[in-house]
TrEMBL record:
Name this polypeptide is given: histidine kinase
Pfam families according to UniProt: HATPase_c, HisKA_3
Domain called Histidine kinase/HSP90-like ATPase: residue spans: 158-263
SMART domains linked: HATPase_c
Keywords: ATP-binding, Kinase, Nucleotide-binding, Phosphoprotein, Transferase, Two-component regulatory system
Cellular component terms (Gene Ontology): membrane
Alphabetical list of CDD domains matching this protein: HATPase_UhpB-NarQ-NarX-like (cd16917)
GO MF: ATP binding; phosphorelay sensor kinase activity; protein dimerization activity
Length: 278
C-alpha cells in the first residue's frame, strides 16, 4: 500500500477549462497560477523567517536574562546555606542547577536553530557544517553526500536558505520522532531540478502521522519548495525487506524535496512580484 504524501506546488486545472480554452490560453492560465503560488509561498517563507528572528531575539534578550538572574539567585542560596543545613538542601540545589543548565543549553540551541545560517561558504558548506553539528549533538550516525554541480555555487541566498531549512527541519524531525540510529542527507541534481533527499532507519510514518494535516513544520517545508516550483514528498520506506530477511525488518522515513533550477536561479521573489503587478 502506498503510504506516501505528495505536496504539489501547482493548482489543479479543471478539465472543463482545459477543453474549453485554446491550449495557449490554458498554458497562460497555468503559468499565472504557478506564479501566484510562488508569490504566496515566498511571502509565507519571508513571514516565517521574520517570526524566527523575532522569537530568537525574545529568547536571547528575555528568557536569557531571566535564566542568568536565576543562576545568580541559586548561587546566592548556595553561598548563604548554613554549614549545618540538611544534606537534602544541597541535593535540591544540585538538581536545580542541573535543570537550569539543561534549560540554558536548550535555549542556546533554539536561538541557533532560529537564526539564519551563514551561507558565505555556499549551501554545500553550510549543510556540511550543520550535519556535523547535528551528529555530535544527537549521537546519530549522519552522512551528507552532494552531487558535484557548479550551479550549487551560484544559488541566490533565498534559494540556498530554502534548501537549508528543509534539510534542517527534516533532520530535526528524525531526532525528535524517528527513534532512528542513522540519518542520511543527499543532494542530487538533474537538468531541471535539484532534489534534496533525507532518510532514516527509524520507526517510519505512523498511521496518525500520515493522516495529520496542517503540521507547522510540514507546511513550512511545503512553502519553501513551492516558492521555487518544487514538490515535497514524504513516504515510509522499509529497510532490509527482501525475501531473505526476517519479518522484523525496520522501517524508515524518506523525504524528497524538489526545487526547480529555473526558479532558483531566476530573479528574487520580490522582483517577480513587481513583474506580476505591472
Amino acid at each position: 500500500m502506498d503510504t506516501s504524501t505528495v505536496v504539489p506546488f501547482s493548482a489543479h486545472i479543471p478539465p472543463s477549462l482545459a477543453h474549453a480554452a485554446p491550449p495557449s490560453a490554458a498554458e497562460r492560465e497555468l503559468a499565472q497560477l504557478r506564479a501566484r503560488v510562488r508569490q504566496l509561498s515566498a511571502e509565507l517563507v519571508q513571514a516565517q523567517e521574520a517570526a524566527c528572528r523575532h522569537v530568537a531575539r525574545e529568547l536571547h534578550d528575555g528568557v536569557g536574562a531571566e535564566l542568568t538572574a536565576t543562576r545568580f539567585a541559586l548561587a546566592g542560596v548556595e553561598t548563604w546555606l548554613p554549614a549545618d543545613a540538611p544534606p537534602q538542601c544541597a541535593a535540591a540545589l544540585a538538581v536545580a542547577n542541573r535543570s537550569l543548565d539543561a534549560v540554558c543549553t536548550a535555549s542556546r540551541q533554539a536561538v541557533a536553530e532560529l537564526h539564519a545560517p551563514s551561507l558565505e561558504a555556499g549551501i554545500v558548506g553550510a549543510l556540511a557544517q550543520w550535519t556535523g553539528d547535528f551528529a555530535a549533538r544527537t549521537n546519530l550516525r549522519t552522512s551528507f553526500v552532494c552531487a558535484a554541480d557548479v550551479r550549487l555555487t551560484r544559488l541566490p541566498t533565498d534559494a540556498a536558505l530554502a534548501i537549508f531549512r528543509v534539510a534542517q527541519e527534516a533532520l530535526n524531525n528524525i531526532a525528535k520522532h524517528a527513534r532512528a540510529e542513522s540519518a542520511d542527507l543527499r543532494i542530487e541534481t538533474g537538468r531541471r531540478h535539484l532534489t534534496l533527499i533525507v532518510s532514516d532507519d527509524g520507526i517510519g510514518l505512523t498511521r496518525t502521522a500520515r493522516s495529520r494535516r496542517g503540521h507547522f513544520g510540514l507546511s513550512g517545508m511545503q512553502a519553501r519548495c513551492a516558492a521555487f516550483d518544487g514538490t515535497l514528498r514524504i513516504s515510509a520506506r522499509r529497510i532490509g525487506s527482501g525475501r531473505g530477511d526476517s519479518g522484523t525488518a525496520s522501517r524508515g522515513t524518506l523525504v524528497q524535496a524538489r526545487f526547480a533550477w529555473d526558479a532558483m536561479l531566476a530573479s528574487a521573489p520580490g522582483a517577480e512580484r513587481r513583474a506580476l503587478q505591472s
